[in-house]
Amino acid sequence: EVQLAESGGGLVQPGGSLTLSCQASGFTFNTFAISWIRQRPGSGLEWVSTINGAGEDKYYVDSAKGRFTISRDNSQNIAYLQMDDLSTEDTAIYFCATSRSAAIGWPERGQGTPVTVSS
Asked: Is 90 exceeded by the pLDDT of residue 37?
């Protein structure tokens, strides 16, 4: 059973940084692409970034390019999302999810970690 648990969210001022973590279990982690998705207040799920199983290929939504960095440690079954130069527009609940479930709305995702960017 796919299990994902996010951590690392919190309150940060505009321009600040946070690093989110995603601890995975129940599946062969290094064979799964992992995505970070988010849900802003009052909005649906939005794809943010994806990393392939080997950690070589990385993709970002345009608004995250140059500010966010996705990575993974397959020896620890953890994925990360480093977020720099945060803005109020980044306020959301952030989830990690298996990329294979994207077509059906990412049901394989964790419970999320909230990120609030505010002065």
From this structure: yes
